[in-house]
Specification:
Largest sheet: 3 strands, mixed
Number of strands: 3
Shape: elongated
Oligomer: single chain
Strand content: under 5%
Helix content: 55-70%
Order of helices and strands: HHHHHHHHHEHEEHHHHHHHH
Length: 457
């Protein structure tokens, strides 16, 4: 007989080995063989937590009442003392074990129905396990490990450290998660051998580490293939649309004698579809003898969608002319294989005075004033193109461009609102052939400051 007259379950040596063995939240079976009522819900726990009462005081009140109603001694008293320490530390399943003990005492006739109800009421005012560490932080840590693994799998030259760090983190998370599960506690499963718990934790840790590295790689490959195919479809549509790339190619050849090519997936997918440094859904680079346009029209309309009801086709044309202006602006200054000198017309006047060679010219291109200077002429050229190609819709298109620039409050390199306003008021260019010269002239004439301070708009 246990202290207090409770009979041991078959095969048990002491009370600790006769605790509740089932662990589900509803329909739990105690060591005494009877079905238990489900514990109090989380809503009750939250209401108790917000009531202003001390959890430590509630725990002390519960155990004091329990010990007074059903005195214990020996091993049972020691177990209750240990359970009280677990309750104060908000350890996992302590309330379940307390409920099983109360119901066992009631079933054995050592606790009256009223006393058992009072015990349950006091138990309901105590908080259960603390979920933040295991139920929130561990999944977040695993998410961080998966994210790090996904990035490491997409790097071009990874060393051992890149996959090792997320793998070790995932292994640690998996080991600790398994170790802290209630069904891994030996007191909840007396049949469990001493060596089973660490071995199972190690196996789970190894499997989770492998999956953390393997799954992001497979998913990354699939997502990359899907993205490339979507880019290829967008590229084919832009290249076949007469109002798309063919318009820019003919304009550049006929009016400026410059060849422009449209980059395919191998050349332009990554820079227009992946969030890399300096990536953009539309960009143009200068090469010896030609300009290279990288564009993902779908991403342009998704990231740089026009405001208001304007033609998306004409808006895309303005974006392409914006990029073409960068080509024309830089082509005048960039050195060639037959000419080593550099020009400074594409540099902000304050930066141009310090440029003496190619290295200085390239370094000046990274300065804020020159970046704004270059974006100014590109936006002015788009404004001029719309005034020539779509005079009836030019006002709405220009207003949409200005709104996009003013809304990007942290993008100081594209804070070209002053130049946009000046170009909208100026006399329109006489022809497409004169368009860039007009934009270059207005950039210089506009009463705008090359300041990274954004003025209220």
């Amino acid at each position: 007989m246990l202290p207090g007259g409770t009979r041991k379950a078959a095969g048990c040596v002491q009370w600790q080995g006769c605790r509740r063995t089932a662990r589900s939240q509803s329909g739990r079976r105690s060591a005494f063989g009877e079905i238990q009522e489900p514990p109090l819900g989380k809503a009750r726990e939250r209401s108790v937590a917000k009531s202003g009462f001390s959890n430590a005081a509630n725990v002390a009140a519960f155990f004091a009442y329990l010990k007074q109603s059903a005195p214990s001694e020996g091993a049972t008293a020691a177990w209750l003392a240990d359970l009280e320490r677990q309750a104060l530390a908000k350890r996992t399943v302590w309330r379940d074990e307390a409920e099983a003990y109360v119901r066992g005492l009631a079933a054995a006739g050592k606790l009256s129905a009223d006393a058992a109800a009072a015990c349950r009421d006091r138990l309901g005012q105590c908080l259960g396990s603390e979920p933040a560490k295991r139920e929130l932080l561990l999944p977040l840590a695993w998410i961080a490990a998966v994210s790090a693994a996904a990035v490491s799998r997409r790097t071009m030259a990874e060393d051992l450290l890149m996959p090792a760090v997320p793998g070790l983190l995932a292994a640690a998370v998996g080991w600790w998660w398994t170790y802290t599960r209630p069904w891994m506690q030996q007191r909840n499963d007396p049949r469990q051998r001493r060596w089973e718990r660490p071995i199972l934790c190690t196996v789970v840790a190894a499997v989770l580490a492998g999956f953390t590295y393997f799954v992001p790689g497979v998913v990354g490959e699939v997502m990359q293939e899907v993205s490339i195919r979507r880019f290829q479809a967008d590229h084919a549509a832009l290249k076949a649309d007469p109002t798309g790339f063919p318009m820019l190619r003919e304009l550049a050849r006929e009016h400026y004698g410059i060849k422009v090519v449209l980059g395919d997936a191998g050349q332009s997918w990554a820079t227009t579809s992946v969030a890399l440094p300096n990536a953009s859904p539309a960009s143009m680079t200068l090469h010896p003898g030609y300009c290279h346009l990288s564009m993902n029209r779908a991403n342009v309309l998704r990231i740089f969608k026009p405001a208001g009801h304007v033609s998306e086709a004409v808006w895309i044309q303005g974006v392409m002319l914006h990029e073409f202006a960068h080509c024309l602006d830089g082509s005048r200054d960039a050195p060639t294989f037959s000419r080593s000198t550099v020009g400074t017309r594409s540099l902000a006047p304050s930066d141009a005075v310090h440029v003496k060679d190619l290295e200085g010219w390239l370094a000046a291109g990274e300065l804020p004033a020159t970046q704004l200077w270059r974006e100014a002429v590109a936006d002015v050229m788009a404004v001029g193109y719309w005034r020539l190609a779509a005079p009836g819709n030019a006002h709405d298109l220009v207003a949409s461009l200005r709104k996009k620039r003013s809304n990007a409050t942290h993008d100081t390199a594209h804070a070209t609102m002053c130049w946009i306003d000046f170009a909208a008021r100026a006399e329109a260019p006489s022809s497409l052939a004169e368009l860039f010269a007009w934009a270059d002239r207005l950039r210089t004439q506009a009463p705008c400051e090359l300041s990274q301070r954004r003025e209220p708009t």
